[in-house]
Amino acid sequence: MDSIKIRGARVHNLKNIDVEIPREKFVVITGVSGSGKSSLAFDTIYAEGQRRYMESLSSYARQFLGLPDKPDVEQIEGLSPSIAINQKTTNNNPRSTVGTVTEIYDYLRLLFARIGKPHCPKCGKPVSPQSLDQIIAQILKLPEGTKFTLLAPVVNQKKGRHEDVLENLKTAGFIRVQVDDKLRELDEEIKLAKTKKHSISAVVDRLIVRENIRSRLSDSLETALKFGNGIVHVQLDDKVLIFSEKNACVDCGISLPDIDPQLFSFNSPKGACPACDGLGKIFEQLNWETMFEWMHAVHEFKNHDDFFETCPHCHGKRLNPAALSVTVGEKNISDVVDLSVDKCKDFFSTLEEKLNDNEKKIARQVLKEIKSRLKFLQDVGLEYLTLSRKSATLSGGEFQRIRLATQIGSALTGVLYVLDEPSIGLHQHDNQKLLETLKNLRDLGNTLIVVEHDEETMRAADMLVDIGRGAGKNGGEVVAQGTAEEISRNENSLTGDYLSGRKKIPTPATRRQPKNFISLSGINVNNLHDFSVSFPRDIFTVITGVSGSGKSTLVDEVFFPYVDKNKELLKELEVEGIIKIDQDPIGRSPRSNVATYTKIFDKIRNLFGDTQGAKMRGYTASRFSFNVKGGRCETCNGNGVLKIPMNFLPTVYVTCEVCGGKRFNSETLEVMYKGKNISDVLSMPVDEALEFFGNIPSIKRMLQVLHDVGLGYIELGQPANTLSGGESQRVKLAAQLARPITQKKNIYLMDEPTTGLHFDDVKKLIDVVQRLVNRGDMVFIIEHNLDVIKSADYIIDLGPEGGDKGGQLVAWGTPEEVAQVKKSYTGQALKKILFDGEK
Predict the structure, then answer these.
(1) Which of 551, 589, 610, 838 is spaced 20 to 30 Å from 381 by Cα?
(2) pLDDT at residue number 644
């Protein structure tokens, strides 16, 4: 079958659509925010692919994994195994890094274990195996009379009961063992937990340092080295000395453990720094004044580094001294992962020249894997990242492109990949790399379905599927399908209108001129070194630059904290507060919705509470809340649906039979306002509610703003967790626009607000931003979208590249001024659309 055939898709707002998507092609699904793109790509196609795979598993396996609900679709044919690569950075584990996620770190551990050169952690000299005589000499140097025990380590931090190991030691004639640092008799019953890691050492001999013990010591050491696989532990009262026939420093008397991949893992007790357990940071010792402050700190440090300090023992390198003393190409493994991807690739490109023939033979395959994965990261525009960078600090776009690079490395064929705006966070300068990567993935024999709004990506695709024409109830249909050229000729397609130039986002006729600046200097954070910049006041400013150039660092870690803590400056600026408007959900629970978030629902409940019907029954405004007892349906607790657990089958949600999904009890629903009950009002789209409440100024103002930002199709009671990121952001913007105008203004910070927005949505976003600035607010936006950049009053452009090659102020001024700066990638792109008429 050469295509994926979808028949009768009705997920969310999809209107029973039929669509056919060619296999082994690069297909872009586009449309305005809320039109149904993700409903088709992720909630229908990908969800059904996943469900069919899970269905093939046994019922025993499904009870642990859970079977996804079947999407509301008549039929889907031609599906391949599906992989979704979305923007969500779900990995907040502090142990997860770019190196571990891409598996490059696993190959590095193998490389260092096989060809690494060990050095003494104390003196730095190369170490070599110790002979029996050298070990004896080291032990006899101990003060006379020192008591010690010779131990042969047979199990080192391995899970299991180890019954066979204990039995073999008993058969070999041993009487005692040390199990997890406790001495045990082999005659007694030793039961170990199967799921826990254990260490077991055989007690070979107990001796006291004297002149006449050499012969006995030699015999005992031979036995210990035999059973300990070349390693012997000398247990003293206060410490353990480790000797090895393999690697040891004769001068310092320090022996290194076996050099294997585990030694270089900061997730293993064998390799992790013992002070910080491989985290690289330790909890800062603070003097808490109250238990409340301590509890607050414990809650906060899960997601922030504020309560941590760099480990003073490993200096943030995560590994113990033994692991850090092994080098390849004169660098230890921590030095390598601290390099940026491009510098790391350079290091490995020249490494082979420094290896001898044996080492080249051993390392050839490992180096091939490392270099190919580094190249894939470069190809998706992430050459500025370091392999030691924590996954939790990555943006959604960066994390998605890392997963994309990992998938390319796996070289699978016949797979259906579903991607959610992979161009997010990419400057136009880097976009071509991403497109080449996507085409390579297609050319391997895979099908790519990409939800995207980027024009360059649309034009590079084999086919476009345009969903719309509007959003919500006005969307959910396939408006046009074909190549970008064919779509641009379709006058019914809103996307085609913008691709053809029939519609466009105009460049402002005039620019606001900055009168004063907020100047910062001597900035040294991340890749910003001795950096100075001036932020204009009272206008619309965009901070731009290639990925990794330092934009987020400058705004989030420098500008925002400086202004927020500078009370004198806030007073001088007459600023009420600094507000970050992002695309995070406006609520996690279905109980939160547009009406509750914008406070419209409070006013609506008051209206119902003031009706004659409510007063006759003695009802107040609280009666019309579905969050408290009284007016809500108690069968579903005001949710409108009932959750039915099905053990190993998927959870089923059914409409509440008592209230019919209306959330309220029948007595509450009897109260009417202009012929509508409270449930009817929550079911109204914004545009309908705007007409319905046209005579109530306090409600009308907010509804009008929601309409102006392009959310007229959203129902007032639509659950917050069903809104897209773009919709959530515009709800937040609407709430800010509708606030009463006071003498004080706000500073608004936005990080890539065009994420998930179509050309038409971007136009509305720009209009909203201009309205905020016109009313006296200051707006600072981090953005790559050229339409937003060209609409700004002032641009601060960072670069010229990312990572170590970034962190510089490349250009500043109006869009026209920046467009004249040849070394600015942003300027080059702006010049084409401002002066050359291109896009």
Answers:
(1) 838
(2) 72
